[in-house]
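Dear colleague,

Following up on yesterday's call, I've attached the two folding results inline so they're easy to grep. Please treat them as preliminary; we haven't cross-checked anything against experimental data yet. The first protein's sequence and structure tokens come first.
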Amino acid sequence: MSLAFTPNFFLTRCEDELVLHLGQPVQMPTGQKTRVLIVGGGVTGLTTAWALLDAGCDVTIISDQWASAKDRVGSQISGAIWEWPLRSSERGKKSTEVTYSSLPLYHDAHTLIGTLPKSKIWAMTSYRIFDKLQTIVPPSDSFDHGVRMLMANFFFAEDIEQMADKGQLEKWEDIVASEIKGARRDATLINLYGVNQQSGVADSYQYFAPVIDTVAYLDWLRFIITCKGATFDTRRVNGPPDMLVNASGLGARELAEDNTLYPLRGALIQVINDGRAFPKVTDALVVSPSDTGGIGEDMVFHRQAHEGPLQLLVPGLDNAKYDPWYAISTGIGPFRSMNARVEREQRRRSDGSASRIIHSYGHGGSGFTLSFGCANDVLGLIHDLEDAISAFDKKSLVAHL
């Protein structure tokens, strides 16, 4: 597929909701385009760029590294699965959840109580768009976006009603009450999926979820926004932008002077699954070695991969052979003790006008789950900022008359 390709699908903000549709962009501006600089080339920055391009903005993305199969950025360190936000009263709360899904998972259960409603809105926006993407842009052998709607199965070491922390029970009740497809809670799933009885699993549920090959998806996403007119810059920007979106991930600790942001390591281990070293499996099992989805600095990959919870779920993985093409990838994710930050900079400019900086960072391991929802909020903030700038300019004009 060449860069001459013109996508016929667009993101449009409709009644405060970002939706994906076929056809033509809706309500494109007729005047001069708003120039937006996005700092950060991960899933948050690229998704935001897509939404802004379809809204008629002139978008430049600046980053010190771009996603590729060889040189992976933080958003590509693991596979991704869409997951309903899990309430946690504090970061690092221990979880007894074991995830059985179709691609590697960077599990994240860190949403604070005060921000949970917003995270649910962000997550459902992304769910609908990933689901729609499957319908209007079927996977192609020539350029696969890497997104699949697959049955994700979650297993627990005890009945969720019996857990001291009721977060998992509340999560399941929310799933049932939502439009998430295929929700089913049934302990017989343990036997149905051949889970090792010695693993101690006692409860389980499932639902259809977007499962994402992060390497393929970010490659596809960058291609799409390139076709839509995005500019990628690794050095400099020609002229000041009208607005700036800070999607710099961990870089925001310095750029936004945000000391609540901290790194958490993640890893992806790839093994050969051809049925020779162990019975071939059609689903991948991923268990987070730590409580919040990351790994410790003292992690020994061989022992964690072959002697940990994964081996308990699927006996035989201790015979697995590393993939010689890309066996292990590691990186760090941008976690924030105050949860994700999606808002306009509150400090005003020296002339008294509203800041033209919008922040979107600190999504931790939920970057893909929250990506389109956060992009929707950024687009709304940019529209508000355009109105604020226009009002300020008019006020300044009157003052000078």
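Below is the second protein, in the same order (sequence, then structure):
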Amino acid sequence: MTSSFQEISSLIISNSSYNKSIESYDSIDQSIFIQIENHLSKLTDKDDELFSSEFDYLSPLLLFLLEHIPLEIDLNVLTSTETNYHQISSTTRKLYKPNLLPTNQSRPDYSFQSQTILKHLFQYLQIKTLEEFLQLKQNSQPIYFHCFHLLTPLLLKTTYHQYPIAMELFVHIIKSLKQSSSLSESFDLIFSICLITLDDPSIDMKLISLYLLDHLQKHCTSTELLLFNRANVIMYGLEQNLHRRGDRLPFFECLLATTFRWLIILENEVYSGKHLFIRTSQLIERFIRDAILETNIEYRRCLLKILRSYLNRLQLFAIRHLNHFLELIDDSIDNRSLRYSSFEFLLLIIQILKPRINVHRLDIMKIIIRCLFRIFHEEKDNVSLINLVKTCLKELQLSTKENYVQDAFQSLIETTELDLSYREFLQTFL
């Protein structure tokens, strides 16, 4: 039985790619999968001798098979501001496949063959998942430990860019480890890889870093993440990337959402007090300033969306930003593409910051009236936007005193200097 694994081992040693640099990378022949399958078919019952053997047969085989299974990152998970993984619907998965190889190199697709052999291997080992495989003990050490032993020398700051496939394999393994004890044992290695990839100029490398950070946050305790100033170091790296523009848009969305989730570790609302959310507030002010200066509509829409998430999180603590929120909305409604998202933001502000809305009612009413003027001339048939404005007016009416909204509209309708058709349009909002 061990002889079969010896044959497999001799096959994959010369055909593995993860430990070959980019310059010496070469594709393999499909026949090797048939040979491995033939050797595995000779195996019948699980043999404990395989796990007590001094030679590690399973780790190199697993790495070889994972080489040919594409790495997939769910962008919906990375762009979500939810910290609870189970709150993110799996039916709306938006998968992205990073390509770490140079553009002039490609790999043949042997995913089906690799997965077939992996299933066969699972049956032989009497397990069902990759995580169970990684937790199997080989010479008293789990398989994932042996895999890391093979990969770590290739993933140093000075060598990682020469071994992109090794980086993919590392993420494959971490992706499958969900037990906090396993992640804790490898935390220092994972943490260093997060920093290395976050600092890399490649967007695919940065997305890998964000994915690893998200995985750590979901499966490790906040104590582990805060230990030795780790969370602050990561936060600094994330903030250094916020200035990037011109990249593919999903990266910017993922970066904003990861920064939002990471701040929850640094400033947990459980420890509330007078100085709560200081760092969060600094970041909010930066986002408001960036959004006002942003010329790219899609980037500004992303900033408006993440600011809504910050408002939801801070609740009444966001009152300190109310003037700047209104300034941003006032600046955004001139653009038709941003008008709806701006009013969604305004509605949330009115609902959450209700105790202070009466003080700012004039500024809010000016924004609404100015927007109605543009709607009347540019998109009078936009029913969804008009309904959203009506909802904002209802909420504003509930948040103000002395029938303020109706009186303001009535005075405008009675202004004879305004065009009659525009006054009739305003009448529909009463």
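For the second protein, one point worth flagging: The longest strand covers residues 73-74.

Best wishes,
A.L.
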